[in-house]
Every structure is written in C-alpha cells, then in structure tokens.
C-alpha cells in the first residue's frame, strides 16, 4: 500500500459567483509568494473528503449571494 501524500495546507472554496474563489487564490498567492508556505487551492466539490485526513491545515472559504447557492457545491461537506 502506497504512503499517502501529506499536504501541508489546502484552501478549499465554494462559490456561486466566483467571490470565494478569488479570495482563495489571493490567500494562496500571499501564502506561497510572500510567506513561502507550500499550499494548494481546490473547489470543495472537487476535493475528495477522504483526502482531508492527509492535510495538516485546511481553510474553507464559502461565499453566498443571499441564497444557499454556494452550499450546493459544498453539500457533501455539510
């Protein structure tokens, strides 16, 4: 059995209009370029929930536009 890859830091976002995605990538840019932190960004709906056990730190950015639209993308996590 292969050893799972450990991810130091992952930023997961859920967004209907792109706001949370924009914020996630701004944080990613600051973390990687200014702080030298190894991290990745992913849409929460595309990130396998079971892979979270291989993550040291996770940040969730979820934006709504007055409805629960963004939560549709994160439903598997709720």
Rg, alpha carbons:
13 Å
Helix content bin: 25-40%
Outline: flat
- Low-confidence runs: none
Q: Report the sheet with the most strands, covering strand number, pairing sense and barrel closure.
A: 3 strands, parallel
Helix and strand element order = EHEEH
Question: What would the average pLDDT be, to the nearest integer?
Answer: 81
Residues in β-strands, percent: 25-35%
Class of secondary structure makeup: alpha/beta
Number of helix segments? 2
Distance from first to last alpha carbon:
30 Å
Topology, number of strands: 3
Within the largest sheet, what's the order of strands?
2-1-3
What would your notes on this structure say?
There is one protein chain. 27% of the residues lie in helices and 26% in strands. It contains two helices and three strands, in the order E-H-E-E-H. The protein has helices at 19-34, 69-73; strands at 7-14, 40-43, 55-62. The mean pLDDT is 81.
Task: Please outline what is shown here.
By secondary structure, this protein is an alpha/beta fold. It has helices at 19-34, 69-73; strands at residues 7-14, 40-43, 55-62.
